[in-house]
C-alpha cells in the first residue's frame, strides 16, 4: 500500500489545525470523507480538500508533501504509525503524542513535542521556543518518548520536563531544562544562559561547559560514573549522535538549589 | 411597550396560588392588566411555567481572588475551545461576559458576590460592571481588619462601631457585611493555624465570638436588611459541625446568616473519622428562627476553591489538584486559591450527601438557600443538575448508585424521600433571597415588581428545563430565548447607601495616612469610576 499523501496545493491563507490528520483518526475514513474535514481556524475555515491533493491508501503512513509555518498541531495526539512532513511545521507539532514516529524535515515553531508522552519526534531543522514544554498553566512538559532536534532549539527547551530523552544537536537558547522535574536533555553546541534554571531533578548533558549558570548551582568537579559511558553508547546506538557525548569523567554541576537541588548538569571536559 | 405573557402556569408563592393567569409588562415593570389597552407583543406560554428571575445570594463571580484564580488556571480557558463563532471573548470561557450570559440562560437575574475585600472594592465593581444582563451586588468583608479589631479591643462605643460599619458599606458600595473565619486571618499573621469560635486573636485579645457578635449587632442596629453573613471557623474540617452548632446557638434573638453550611456538616464518626452531622445541624436550624443558611452543595468534577479564609486555604495546599496554589497573606483577610477536583470517593460522596441532607431536612424553604458556593463546591453551571436532585428522588437514587456506599451509610440521605415542589423552588431561589437581601422590587411576580421573569418549558428532564430557559426577561427586556442569549444589556450593582458620619470619615483619613502613608482617596472611589450609565441602584435600610 502506498503512503497516504497530502500534497500542498498552495500556501494556506490561514493557520491550520492539522491534529485531525493522524493515523489514529484517519483509520477507516475514505478519501472523500477526509477531504471534508475542517482544518482551517478562521471564520470561514478551509477543508482538507481545499488545501491538499490527497493520494494513497495507507492510513498508518502519512506524508505531507510540502509544509508551512502555518501547519499547527501536526501529529498532535498521535499514538502510532508514521507521519512525515516534507517542509516546515508551525506550533505544537507532535503535542501530546504518545506513540509512533513523526518527522519534520525542516523547521518548526514553538511548543513542538509539548507534553509528549511516548513515540519519537525528529525535527531535522530548527525548533522554536518551549520545545517539549507545557502550555500556559499546565503542570508538566514532556513526559516520555524521544525528541530529537537536528538543528537549533529556541529558549526554554525542555521546560518542566518529567521523563524521556530530549536531544538538541546544534545548540539552544536560554533557560534549557528550566523547571525540570526529571528526564534527560542532551545538547551539543552552544547553550544559552542559565541552563537548568529552577530544575528540581533530572540531567542536562552537554558537550561543553555551560557559559553562564545560575549561582544556585554548585560545581561538583569531575565525576567518575558508569552512567556517562552507558548513555554515550545509547545515544550512538539509537542514531541520535555519531560520537560519544560526555566521555569519561565528565564535569558536573548540582542544582538548582533555589528549589529541590537534586538535578545535575554533566558536561564533557577539555573543550 | 406593553407585553402580555399568556397561557403559562404562574409559580408565584408570594402572591398566592400557582395557576394559569396572564402577566403584563410595561416599561420594565409587572403591571395589572391595563383596561382597554392591547398588548404590543404577546407571548403564548402554553406548556411553560413562569417564575420570577432567580437570585443567587452567594456566588464568587468577581473581584481580586476570582481574578487571581483565572491567572492561576489559564488552562481552563483552553478547555473552552473550540470557540463558539460569534461571542466576543469566547476564548476565555471564564470571563465576566460568559458569567452574565450563563446565569441569564438559566433564568437567574440577580447574583451576589459575597466576599469583597474593602480594598478590592473598585476592582470588584469594575469587574461586575463588565458582567452583562444580570444585576449584581456585593457583601463587604470585615472582621479581620486592624481597625475593627482595635475598636473592639479598646471597648469603643457601639455608635463608633456602627459608624465604621456604615462608612465601610458606603465607601465600598455594597449590600451587606460578611465576616470570614472571624479573627483567624489576623491570628494567621501571628502563625496561628487552628482557630475556633472562642479562641482569641493574639495582640488584640478579642475572641472570634466577640467579633461576630459585635458585627451582628451593628448590622442589625443599622437596619441593613441582610443579616450578618457568617463564614464560620473550621471550614471543611472533620468535627466542624460543633463549630457551626455553637455559632448557631450564638444568634441570641438577632438574625444571622450562615454561609455554605455543608462545609461544616462533618462529624468524626466511622473508620475514617469523617461523617455526616447534617441531621443534627438541620434540626438546630429548624429550631432557631433567627438563622438562615445557604448550603454550598458539592457536585463532582474539577473546580477551584476561592476563599478569603486564608487559614483554611493554607491548610488545603496539600489537596490542590492540579498541584498549584496562590496564598495571599494580605491586609485584613488575605485569601487563597486552591484548585480541587471532587471525586466520587468516600470524601466526595459524603460531602455531596451532607449538602443534600441539609436541603431536604431543613423544613422551611424561606431559610435554606440554593448555592454551591460557586466555584467552591461546584461551578454555578451545575445548578440544573442540583435542581433535579432536589426535585426527584429517582434522580438521587440513580446518582447514589454511582457513589461510595460506605460514605452514604454514614448519612440519612437514603431515608429521605422529600421532593421539592416548584413552589418551594420558587421560594428558595426567588422569594426568600429577595426578602433576605431586602430587595422588595423582585423575587415575585406581583404588580409593581421589576419584570425579571424566567419562563421554563415543562418537561420530564428537570435539569434540561432549568439549564435552558424558554424565555428570560430582565427589566422587561427579552434577553434569552430558547436557552440562548438574544440581547445584551447592562445590569446594575445594588447597594445600600448609608450616609457616612463626618467624624468617621476624618478618622479614616487619619488612619490611612498613618497606616499606609496614603490618602484615603486611594481606597475610595466615586460612582463615575465605573464607566456605565447609572452603574448602581440603591436599596434602602429598614430603620
Ligand atoms: Zn463563598
TrEMBL record, chain A:
Organism: Phyllobacterium phragmitis
NCBIfam families: one_C_dehyd_C (TIGR03122)
Gene3D superfamilies per record: Glutamate synthase, alpha subunit, C-terminal domain (2.160.20.60)
GO biological process entries: methanogenesis
Protein name as annotated: Formylmethanofuran dehydrogenase subunit C
One annotated GO molecular function: formylmethanofuran dehydrogenase activity
Automatic annotation (TrEMBL), chain B:
Coiled-coil annotated residue ranges, if any: none
Amidohydrolase domain location: 42-486
Superkingdom of origin: Bacteria
GO molecular function (one): hydrolase activity, acting on carbon-nitrogen (but not peptide) bonds
Signal peptide boundaries: none
Database matches in Gene3D superfamilies: Urease, subunit C, domain 1
Descriptive protein name: Formylmethanofuran dehydrogenase subunit A
